[in-house]
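User: Round two. Same drill as before: sequence, then structure, for each protein.

Assistant: Same drill it is. First protein:
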Amino acid sequence: MERLAVNWEAWFSEEVLSAGRAMYRQREIREIAVFEAEATVYGEWAGEAAHAVLGWQDGRLVWRTTLERPLWGETLAVAGLYEVEELIADELADRALYEPGIAKEKPAEEPARAEEISPQPASGSEKKTSPKETPARELVLCFSANGSGILCVPEWVEGGGKRRIAAYGERALPAAELELKERESLLRLATHARKGGFAFDGLAAGWRLVSPTAVAHFVQRELLRWTERWRTEGAEEIRLLGRDLPPLEMEAVVEQDAAGDFQYRWRMGWGGDWLPEETVRRLIGEHGGSVLVPGKGMARLGVRQRAVLADWPEEETALPRYQLLSLFGEERIRVRAEGALQAWRDALLAEPEAVEHLPEFLRPYQAKGVAWLAHMLRLGTHPLLADEMGLGKTVQVLALLHLQPLEKPALIVCPASVVPVWEAEAARFFPGTEVRVLQRGSNFGKDREPKIWLASYNQLRRNQVLLAQAEFSFAVLDEAQAIKNPDAKVTEACCAIRAERRLALTGTPMENHPRDIWSIFRFLMPGLLGKRTVFEARMENDPEAVGRLARQVAPFVLRRTKTVVARDLPPKVVMPLLCPMSEVQREAYRRLVEEGVATFGDVAPEELLAGQGGISLLALLMRLRQAA
């Protein structure tokens, strides 16, 4: 004990100390043999037996080991020293610790103290007081708690409690003035503190326990033993930390700053009694969702509350308004928003005003579609037009682009087969529009003139490097289901487009797979549907998630079917067109018919449909259609 009273940890690097502590905690030291002059430590390293012999020369540790590398040997020595300390602490707890009259050796001069672990009393006056001049001292552990954990500050009490002296730090008693029993008590405290997960805090001159899980374990299982072994103060307040508090209420507060941006912050508490902001920040930062509330207990976040927080940045920051809007769709939290955000939300959900000076060829539902798109863009959102196929999404977008003169180029991305359709529609309805098709050798990064660029998805992927040089007034994705795979290269290229306003078009029903919606809205409004991993886990595990998703994207999606707009459509026109076959077609058709009769002519229809022949017959019919 006398030898371990010096600060032996200062002789090792922090790397070695950390590895040695881990080895000690994992109980990889199998056996120790302690003698008067040395100790032997037997352990296991990388599955093989190893040992180290520890000795002392001139007050310093010396060691030798069977391990080849010095770093490994030092680690084994450190783990062994911790085991020896634990052994001594346990022995001291089970027998009489001090007998008057035993001569005390003056300890070796101590090196600088490593404050992280096993601190020693600070050195001071070298004057040594005789036993008769030294009044009896008792070690008192002073507990306190705050949001960051438990702090245990040991103090010496003497003179019937009239005088208190710090056990650690600059004002502590010199090591030379401590009796053997007192030094044993400090050693025992350091050993038990390390085993309990405490770390030494040099500024506070005490031991600190931070992890909420470790705090709960200490209060519920270890605190009673400490109060039996030492005199304590503040333990009753600490006991409250072993109590779980009722479920927290969570509220999102949205406020507008001086620049006009909206920021949000979280409030948590019970019945309007809100926790301090610092405590809330720690609670959000804790992965386990629990934090100490001094004088009350352990506050914890529920599973669903943690799921909500997982979608939002930990740091309070200005976010797009559309992302804040999704807070209103969360049934698990309350939202307190300033009037400006509420007014913006009401405007977003209101019926858009009609747009003047639209082309006369637009049907009424198409004019409403253009007005809705302009309304959503004006409010800072980026919408999805999901009208059924054949209702004229192309002409609606072209009309939108012509509401105001373009100041920058616009980019429309679509499948290669649809590029001619966009060219023809632009030439038919807006003949003065300059349209360029992205091809090999063309460069929209250098051409900054206001025009419409058409690019197929594959061409955009091949020319993705150009996107870093270009900025567009509009970016439109036609047949947006093409980016439903978030990991595809084409999706990556589309999300790299820099544009002031973004649109997506699709006639495919949006119910295919929730991930398709996430990928499209990642292009339109990043962050609206949260992180992908959280989103996918929620879709898999939460039966109500799909319903919440539908409500969340509903304000930004316009979908109309032919049935809904039937009164705006012209009457259906049926025109039979007879297409006579050429001689080459007729000869191919005749040959296929003869082959089919030869193959299936003698097979009864019941047998044909019951076996595999039905598939072959369907294939024949397909070939006949192709021949015609």
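Second protein:
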Amino acid sequence: MKFAPKLLSALLIAQCTLVFAKGNADTIFYGGPILTVNPKNEQVQALAVQNGKIVAVGTKDAVTKEWQSDGTKVIDLKGQTLMPGFVEPHIHIIGTAMSEVLGLNLSNFTLPYDTKETLGAKMKAHLKTVPQGGWLFGFGVDPSRTTPFMAELTADDLDKVSTAVPIFIINQSGHIGYVNHKALEIAGVTDSTPNASGGGVYVKDAQGKLTGKLIEPPSFTPFMAKMPTPPTADLVKAIKQTTQMIAAAGVTTATEITVGFNSPLEGEVKLLQGMAANDDLPIRIRAYLYGPAIPAGYAGLKPNEGNDRLRFVGVKFISDGSTQGLTAALNDPYIYPKDTKSRGNLDYGTDEIYQQMKLYFDQGWQLAVHANGDRALDQTLGNYEKLLAGNPNPQVRRLRIEHFTINRPDQVAKAVKLGVTPGFTIGHVDYWGEAFHDHLVGPERANRIDPSADFKKAGGRFAYHSDSPVSNVSPLNYISEGAGRLWQKPPRKVLGPDERVTVDDAIRAVTINAAYELMSDDKVGSLEVGKLADFVVLESNPRKTPVDQIRNIKVKETWVDGKKQSWQ
């Protein structure tokens, strides 16, 4: 085929222009340390972005020479640090929105601790905002961080706030609740009501009378069913505000770990899908369906359905309760109260939860199981081993265990063998370390909480998370906690010095390892060519900052898809 000279010239110009466009970066960053968190853990001088993806990392001269054009925006970091956007692998986003935006936030992560009196005063002040026919709903009461130690609320205590307005308060752990007598009346829960399946307990005193304390989420259901549902517009606004808060902490990918926990599953699925479609989510979401909330025969979603902004990847189960709440399932008794025989409880029989897990495992869903106590870990690891029997490459399924709190060395070894990635609520060390060590489980077990170093030595991966609203979203805080393991309460001490890891190991726990846990490490978690342009700009370099001061580094900017996000 022959072309006229003018046409041939035009084709050659178009071809050259197309080639040149490949080097036409939208943005180039330089002028500060750029931490790639790639397999070699390299630090580079410059990074280029085009169409929401990373197209170059390397020296400033090489990147600018190949990728800068007249239309490229060049950003001088002026000494600030650029690193991968943080990945939060375990958050209750809808629950955080309902607890911290729409409800009364009673969480207190500072000193001094609250008392029953200060908690009552906060509830009475909030009572004025409760509309006619509404409930006083709050989150964040924590007896292990209350003066006196383990002072628990009762229905009588809450009656002092109001006998006319139903009150429902969830413990900081999310596994215990407290209600007043009005709430019991409206929910229809009486002294003769049987405990709820799935580990739910309506606690009674020695005379068989309800105390107002509830154990495990299944016991919450009668109360949540009677509470007014927030208008969709209010909930959307609260979720948007919550995800903006998460973005402000430098997080670019986060998890909704229990879709269907707060309201019917299909409604929460559509809510998240609608927000993603309307560009109301400033960050990427990886979602897990709450196993007990999935209707029989459900076929509304397939494993891994969605896109880079919102994807449904797994199913979550809960096998036991809270360690600081004394309900996690241990092999040996707690040490509080003195001479107790209590070891907590498993929420399900071993075969009962196995059959539920197998249904979704066989469908191809990733599984995530909450297991705080070593007895729950024995159950979960045993069931995982059974599910993976005959599988030559168990790492492909990337089964998760959430928290992995009270543990033994043999459980770490077994988890690594099965390709299990644990997610540690590393705030346990900071906020509850003293309580675990001195009051709840004793030094030997407390020192092994969140065994990061053990997993590294065994050749496994681990990730850090907040479990928000259980603790605050702050990956920089997790890095401090993982590398330093200092507990908060004076006199501050190191909890389990042998479980400290390097700052680089802790950084990986909030970036590439967390992305791996979410089956998203091919897209995010490190700054490599071809990955999505998600990163955070920090005022200083965590590698060069004293360990306990890393938590105080300011997040200056959060970028998703090569675009700076605004949360103010």
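The chain has a mean pLDDT of 95.

User: Perfect.
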